[in-house]
Specification:
Blueprint (H helix, E strand, L loop, with lengths): L3 H6 L6 E10 L2 E11 L5 E4 L6 H9 L6 E6 L10 E4 L10 H11 L4 H14 L15 H13 L5 E5 L7 H16 L3 E5 L3 H7 L2 E6 L2 E7 H6 L4 H7 L6
Parallel strand pairs: 3-7, 3-8, 5-6, 6-7
Antiparallel strand pairs: 1-2, 1-4, 8-9
């Protein structure tokens, strides 16, 4: 992780720019004319009610799905450089191998030479506080341990941008705290983090800025303190007051 900041700055993906992005499925417009520019720096939390399009927005940023209209550009290019963007899903998807073997497989996939992998694996295990679990089958780990493994496995590529889709859903407070500590450390090393969360308290703890979605549109983007203390949009005001958003 020592050179994460250097890699992030020199990755060539900045800015990540969405311009008039539209995404439709089943005859419904789920993302509607979204324009958003991301650069290295603040930890961004994406919030909004269920069905607002939060996870879809992350997938569009990652290039996992293509917009039906508008464009997504990475430093002016139509595609991001390989492995510069990492995505961690809400539910971990792990190989039927040990924790160590999951990390080794990721490094091999990313083209890391065999001679370098041992040291890199040791660093990733330490980052995720998984050293004592290195030889344990990944799929028998607790939910929080699996999610920490998913995160450090994603970081094996040394990405510039880490996208997290509700990584602490259904986790207990201790496991949530461990994930949040890991996210802060990664962000502190210069990796841009975009975190989707439905947990307002988590967003207060973690976010530097908030992107608030409603009906597939960005209703508000603001510094986290301003968003929570003085929301400007009627949609954000209603959401934070606990009123139903229709």
């Amino acid at each position: 992780m020592r050179d994460m900041a250097r890699i992030s700055e020199s990755s060539g993906i900045w800015p990540v720019a969405l311009n008039g992005v539209v995404y439709e499925a089943g005859g419904k417009r789920l993302i509607d004319d979204v324009s958003l520019t991301l650069g290295p720096g603040p930890l961004t939390c994406v919030m909004g009610p269920n069905g607002a399009g939060k996870s879809l927005l992350l997938r569009l940023i990652a290039g996992l799905i293509r917009p039906g209209g508008g464009s997504v550009r990475y430093g002016g290019a139509a595609e991001a450089a390989p492995h510069r963007i990492a995505f961690v899903f809400q539910r971990p998807v792990l190989l039927r191998r040990s924790v160590r073997a999951n990390l080794n497989h990721a490094l091999k996939t990313y083209g890391v030479a065999r001679a370098e992998r041992r040291g890199r694996i040791a660093g990733l295990l330490a980052l995720g506080q998984l050293e004592a679990l290195a030889e344990r089958p990944a799929r028998v780990l607790s939910g929080g341990e699996q999610q920490r493994l998913s995160m450090v496995r994603a970081l094996a590529a040394r990405p510039a941008l880490l996208l997290l889709d509700e990584p602490t859903t259904s986790l207990d407070p201790q496991a949530t705290a461990a994930i949040e500590t890991l996210v802060r450390k990664v962000a502190g090393e210069g990796v841009k983090v975009v975190l989707v969360t439905h947990d307002r308290d988590q967003a207060r703890r973690m976010a530097d800025e908030i992107v608030f979605l409603h009906h597939g549109r960005i209703a508000e983007r603001a510094a986290a303190t301003r968003f929570f203390d003085q929301p400007q949009s009627p949609e954000a005001q209603a959401y934070l007051a606990g009123r139903l958003l229709l």
